[in-house]
Automatic annotation (TrEMBL):
<dbReference type="InterPro" id="IPR006694">
    <property type="entry name" value="Fatty_acid_hydroxylase"/>
</dbReference>
<keyword id="KW-0472">Membrane</keyword>
<dbReference type="GO" id="GO:0008610">
    <property type="term" value="P:lipid biosynthetic process"/>
</dbReference>
<keyword id="KW-1133">Transmembrane helix</keyword>
<keyword id="KW-0812">Transmembrane</keyword>
<dbReference type="GO" id="GO:0016020">
    <property type="term" value="C:membrane"/>
</dbReference>
<dbReference type="Pfam" id="PF04116">
    <property type="entry name" value="FA_hydroxylase"/>
</dbReference>
<dbReference type="InterPro" id="IPR050307">
    <property type="entry name" value="Sterol_Desaturase_Related"/>
</dbReference>
<protein>
    <recommendedName>
        <fullName>Fatty acid hydroxylase domain-containing protein</fullName>
    </recommendedName>
</protein>
<dbReference type="GO" id="GO:0016491">
    <property type="term" value="F:oxidoreductase activity"/>
</dbReference>
<dbReference type="GO" id="GO:0005506">
    <property type="term" value="F:iron ion binding"/>
</dbReference>
<feature type="domain" description="Fatty acid hydroxylase">
    <location>
        <begin position="167"/>
        <end position="302"/>
    </location>
</feature>
């Protein structure tokens, strides 16, 4: 074994990595001059929630053949089947967002500073050297690191590790929400007193995504996101991305549309159509997974497809006729 330095010194490594940072990086003390990054992490999910919900609300007010074709339910069905008024939904969501913001105020580290992260670079450098030695052996590792070592550290620092943190946080949120969500259905007390609120919306719509009993909203959505942020060791700025993205995804899952060009519905099997099945009586004990992936439903046998739903409805009609 012998030492394989990527650079002659740590200063040159830091200079190389920061020489051409990616588009998303800023060295300013805060992303926005008007507020701290911690405040932005609290405000952004609320802005995204109502901004994205407004987009779908406008679609709901437009009557065109193309939109009607991609609506999961028609407008008359929304009005006739939902048991909660839109005003009560609006007020309940505002209350949950107030609780969510209060939790975030306590949770987020307002004093986090933008640092050079030299220690992080050194850790990544050591990890790259170790992995190269382990996989390639010392001689081949020396050749590889001489050619690609600096670029490997730079890629991992700016893209590899942040992407892995985001995906890991998404899996954390999904795991937390699947098992808690399922418990709220399996336990009759929890369903009757808490989760039944959300299922007053048999036909979901965008700004009803966070229509929950306050206790459930705190446990399922707010606390789950905070724990995912902590477990993934994200910075405050990364939290802005996680919280905004998960908020947008939750709205999209309740939007009531199968839009062919919606990137969230194209990328994720857990989408508006998938979650709509859960809101129907025949599918209420299925499709607990939310908001990103469906692996827990598949593994634990609680997945229901649209085809299975329609088949069950057909059989029910045959029995009743």
């Amino acid at each position: 074994m012998f030492d394989i330095p990527l650079f002659s010194g740590n200063a040159s490594l830091q200079h190389y990595v920061y020489a051409a940072p990616p588009f998303y990086h800023t060295s300013r003390p805060a992303v926005l001059s008007q507020m701290s990054d911690a405040s932005l992490a609290l405000v952004l999910p609320v802005v995204v929630y109502w901004g994205y919900s407004l987009f779908f609300h406008l679609l709901d007010s437009i009557d065109t053949p193309w939109l009607n074709k991609h609506r999961i339910h028609d407008s008359a069905e929304v009005k006739s089947r939902n048991l909660a008024s839109k005003s009560s939904v609006f007020l309940a969501v505002l209350f949950q967002q107030a609780v969510q913001t209060a939790l975030g105020y306590v949770w987020m580290d307002a004093g986090e500073e933008v640092q050079s992260c030299l220690n992080d670079l050194q850790s990544i450098e050591r990890a790259v050297i170790y992995c190269a030695r382990f996989v390639l052996g010392d001689a081949a590792a020396l050749s590889f690191l001489s050619a690609y070592g600096p670029a490997s550290v730079k890629f991992l620092y700016w893209w590899g590790i942040p992407s892995a943190q985001l995906v890991f946080a998404m899996f954390c949120i999904d795991t937390w929400q699947y098992f808690l969500h399922r418990a709220f259905h399996v336990n009759k007390f929890l369903y009757r007193h808490f989760h039944s609120w959300h299922h007053r919306l048999y036909v979901p719509y965008a700004y009803g995504a966070l229509y929950n009993h306050p206790v459930e909203g705190f446990l399922l959505d707010s606390l789950g996101a905070a724990i995912a942020h902590w477990l993934s060791r994200m910075s405050v700025r990364q939290a802005c991305v996680l919280f905004a993205f998960s908020t947008m995804k939750t709205i999209d899952d309740h939007c009531g549309y199968r839009l062919p060009l919606d990137p969230l519905q194209l990328l994720f099997g857990n989408n508006a159509d998938y979650h709509d099945i859960h809101h129907q009586i025949v599918g209420i004990k299925s499709n607990f997974a939310q908001p990103f992936f469906i692996h827990w439903d598949i593994i634990l046998g609680t997945r229901m497809t649209r085809e299975t739903l329609e088949l069950k409805r057909h059989r029910t009609k045959e029995k009743s006729s």
